[in-house]
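Quick one:
INPUT:
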């Protein structure tokens, strides 16, 4: 072993800094590494931690062999990191940056430990290594601010402009159209000029969502009709703003109250074209020829004159329909409207959010359609009693605790079909008490006749759902070229489990291949388990791979270790990991994957845009 005189001055301080940092980090990495190995994880961190502690002690004793030992371990770590994480930037950064800092300090201190009483060591090689490491660290720090592409494009996209005369004027529905395409046929703003955009105006609603546990969130997508922008607030208020100036034209306050989940994602809009023309020409009186439908957080559906903000007196009870009728007991916060009403021809259709996981026997998941002019109930679809198409008999209610439709629906006027993305019967993770009808329509796309509410077809994306994999997004309706000069009417449905289902929207049959695959069963007493689940293999699956220890991430080796330990302490068997009495990891979790934002389609370039979150959920069951 090489001995040298103890460095003095700044070199001595750097030596102590290096040895101290290496010792502390080594103890943390080794100790946590031992815990990781004890739960069945990688042994790398134990070995690295032990090596770092030994190297630190040698450096304290002025022995250059400590730096040699750490250098060998660092080079080995480079190979290990690539084999463990591949070449993706962030996983490599988290595994190597801290160790690279120590390697840089080792290169600085090395010449002073090599020096002996006969003269100084040649510093050039060590400082050369230090320079290379410093440059690599600076580049990696700069690279942190560069967006990292998870999936690179296979080929360049030739962007086709919007055809002359086809520029869009209005945004009349939450998803732009009842097909939910979310495509704005405008190209005035493009890559070349987007950096020049400036704020034109700012309007204040006066409603500030409170972060006090009440759940108020501003999630509104405004509607634009002509020169007016219609906005709703989390507290069920509506504002009409001049689209060019932001000046308020009118506002309406529903005085809605709710203890939780205050939000308004959007308004419904209906225009009686004949009545609008008559109103404009003055040939006949017109009452509310253009009306907005406001869903409130306290279970009301309100029709508002889009021209002046007054209630449409001919709708329901002087402008209001009480959505609690036929529902039975509704405790405060247990049932409310959180998604936009669907205007489908001459009916306006609502589902409703039912509070999850509070109890069994919660409010019904019934979907109802009301006449857009009168507010009279046109039809009802009760998942637990499909034969009931109107109001329940006196003294009865719609079936309680059934799957509900809390997300946005779609409508095909040509086929006269409404497409309902359903959730599951509450509670989410225990289904031993669910009925056959609960299971039949749970986590499914249900196509119903827009005139009668009768089911034409349904397709289930999760059998006997134990994961809260309810369908969270508005179905996309799209006419897919069939390669023969025609098109196939398809429905595209995204799901929380990271899958995209493409069905023929006329028949409900898969257009992109779906196959039943075996999934693991659980062992909770009283529960039952589906032996298979549908996998949409004909479309891309996004962010739903079965995770491994190597997929865990942390900004430093300590964070990384803590994450790996938590992962190894949980049971994870892929997308459909069943809940149990032990701690398990569901990935994606009940927030997705893909959630209520739905998809967007550019029909000019045949591109679909999908947003996903990839949030896991750690859960376990507690026996009563």
């Amino acid at each position: 072993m090489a001995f040298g005189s103890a460095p003095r001055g700044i070199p001595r301080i750097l030596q102590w800094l290096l040895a101290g940092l290496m010792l502390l980090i080594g103890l943390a990495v080794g100790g946590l590494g031992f815990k990781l190995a004890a739960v069945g994880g990688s042994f790398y961190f134990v070995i690295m931690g032990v090596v770092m502690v030994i190297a630190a002690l040698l450096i304290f004793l002025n022995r250059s062999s400590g730096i040699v030992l750490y250098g060998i371990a660092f080079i080995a770590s480079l190979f290990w990191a690539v084999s463990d994480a591949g070449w993706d930037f962030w996983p490599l950064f988290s595994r190597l940056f801290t160790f690279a800092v120590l390697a840089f300090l080792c290169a600085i201190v090395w010449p002073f430990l090599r020096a002996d009483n006969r003269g100084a060591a040649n510093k050039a090689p060590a400082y050369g290594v230090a320079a290379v490491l410093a440059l690599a660290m600076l580049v990696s720090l700069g690279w942190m601010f560069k967006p990292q592409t998870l999936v690179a494009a296979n080929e360049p996209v030739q962007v086709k402009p919007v055809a002359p005369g086809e520029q869009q004027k209005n945004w009349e529905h939450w998803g732009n159209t009842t097909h939910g395409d979310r495509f704005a046929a405008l190209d005035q703003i493009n890559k070349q000029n987007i950096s020049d955009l400036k704020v034109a105006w700012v309007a204040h609603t006066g409603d500030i969502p409170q972060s006090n546990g009440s759940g108020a969130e501003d999630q509104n997508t405004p509607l634009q009709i002509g020169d007016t922008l219609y906005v709703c607030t989390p507290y069920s208020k509506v504002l009409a703003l001049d689209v060019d100036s932001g000046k308020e034209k009118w506002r309406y306050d529903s005085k809605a109250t709710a203890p939780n989940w205050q939000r308004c994602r959007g308004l419904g809009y209906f225009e009686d074209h004949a009545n609008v023309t008559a109103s404009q020409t003055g040939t006949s009186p017109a009452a509310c020829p253009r009306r907005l439908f406001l869903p409130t957080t306290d279970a009301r559906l309100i029709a508002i004159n889009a021209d002046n903000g007054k209630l449409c007196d001919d709708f329901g009870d002087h402008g209001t329909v009480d959505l609690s009728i036929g529902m039975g007991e509704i405790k405060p916060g247990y049932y409310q409207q959180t998604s936009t009403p669907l205007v489908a021809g001459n009916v306006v259709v609502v589902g409703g959010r039912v509070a999850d996981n509070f109890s069994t026997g919660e409010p019904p998941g019934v979907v109802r359609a009301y006449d857009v002019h009168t507010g009279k109930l046109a039809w009802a679809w009760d998942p637990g009693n499909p034969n009931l198409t109107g109001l329940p008999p006196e003294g009865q209610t719609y079936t309680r605790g059934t799957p509900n439709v809390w997300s946005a629906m779609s409508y095909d006027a040509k086929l006269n079909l409404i497409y309902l993305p359903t959730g599951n019967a509450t509670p989410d993770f225990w289904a031993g008490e669910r009925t056959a009808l609960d299971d039949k329509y749970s986590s499914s796309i249900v196509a119903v006749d827009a005139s009668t509410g009768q089911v034409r077809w349904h397709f289930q994306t999760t059998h006997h759902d134990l994961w809260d994999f309810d369908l969270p997004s508005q179905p996309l309706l799209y006419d897919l070229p069939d390669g023969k000069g025609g098109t196939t009417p398809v429905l595209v449905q995204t799901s929380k489990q990271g899958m995209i289902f493409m069905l023929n929207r006329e028949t409900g049959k898969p257009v992109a291949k779906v196959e039943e695959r075996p999934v693991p069963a659980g062992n909770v007493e009283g529960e039952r388990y589906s032996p298979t689940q549908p996998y949409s293999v004909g479309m891309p699956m996004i962010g739903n791979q079965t995770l491994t220890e190597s997929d865990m991430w942390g900004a430093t080796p300590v964070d990384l270790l803590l994450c790996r330990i938590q992962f190894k302490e949980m049971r994870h068997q892929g997308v459909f990991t069943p809940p149990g009495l032990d701690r398990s990891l569901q990935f994606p979790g009940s927030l997705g994957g893909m959630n209520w934002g739905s998809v967007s389609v550019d029909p000019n370039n045949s591109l679909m845009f999908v947003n996903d979150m990839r949030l896991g959920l750690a859960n376990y069951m507690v026996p009563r």
